[in-house]
Amino acid sequence: MLKDVKHKHLQPAYDEMFKASTLPLWEIYDNLITEVPTPAGDPFIWRYATLRPLLVDAGSQISAAEAERRVLALRNPGLDRPGVAQTLFAGLQMVLPGEVAPAHRHTQGAIRFVLESTGGYTAVQGERCQMRRGDFITTPSWCWHDHKNDGDGPLIWLDGLDIPLVGFFGARFGEQNESDQQPIFREDDNSISRWGSGLKPLMGEHVHPYSPVYSYPYERVAEALNAMQTNDEPDPHHGWKMVYSNPMTGGHVLPTIAAFAQKLPASFQTRTWRTTESCVFAVVEGRGKATIGDQVFSFEENDVMVSPNWTDIQFETETEAVLFSFSDRAPQELLGLFREELD
Ligand code: GTQ
After folding, report:
1. Any residues with Cβ below 6 Å from ligand 1, and which?
2. Which residues of the chain have pLDDT under 70?
3. How many domains does the chain have?
4. What does R_g of the chain's alpha carbons equal in angstroms?
5. Could you tell me the residue range of the domain that residue 255 belongs to?
6. Which of 3, 113, 267, 320 could covalently link to 158 via disulfide, CB atoms 3.0 to 4.6 Å apart?
7. Domain holding 147: CATH number?
8. Quick one: pLDDT at residue 2?
9. What is the pLDDT of residue 207?
10. Which residues contact 291 (CB under 8 A, 6 or more apart)?
11. Pocket test for ligand 1, best of 161, 165, 254, 256 (most atoms within 8 A of CB)
């Protein structure tokens, strides 16, 4: 039932419309089509120092196999459903030495960014992708994936998924593999050697809407950022920033998720910008302060922050800093929705 309507004398007519399962658009138009985008959810920071002990405690009480996925889902306090932002899910996942998070696949696409590792891998579609600190791994929609820790300490990473977005389409589903670990039929990290070296196979097309490279090791990313740093002045808004890209198209890694790596000089104050994307940041190296909307967060290694859509964001570093981030920029670009404003 419509309340607080603009045209009060029409209320009886509105009640009849409502009974007939309709609404007068002229009463709701201003909520549907605003002059500027409406941010959803709050700016927020999850500190690793707070989350790690919770995860370790969960690890002593539930196994990875029993949990299926032992994940602390990041709950944006400004949203009334699971999710780090309007379109994105994020969580910290932990697999203990010897454990396997069993093989499954689902329509939801995922990315992983490794925060702590002494050894382990995610197997994606028959290929093991090593998980060392800073490595970035994708598990695109409907690709089999299982995680194994073969080190001697906890393996902890940041998960990013398009769960809310896929849910909006009503297209969330998945299935278990018949074995905990899927069969391996490619050598380890084969996809990066095959497609990630400035070459692509002459014969055979990669027909999927995602990058055929599942693994972007930090070693290579650090090298690329250093190369930028050596030659270019830092961008006033972004420092030295790169996009993880699909070598077949130059586009984003997943159709639903874009990912970025950036380096900021020490004692650097970026200018403020805002975009229509919701963005999640993980601190890879360094310390500083992020101002997101009207909140100021001091950050250090492995902290995770969210910058909701159309919210001002600005960084001020103490030390040199490296940030990983992922966002819904990929689908927004595909749909022609992406906008940004740089101060
Ligand atoms: O590792 O497959 O954070 O299926 C949420 C759902 C991770 C995973 C999550 C998942 C996974």
Report:
1. 69, 71, 91, 93, 106, 110, 145, 159, 161
2. none
3. 1
4. 22
5. 44-342
6. 113
7. 2.60.120.10
8. 87
9. 86
10. 272, 297, 312, 313, 314, 315, 316
11. 161
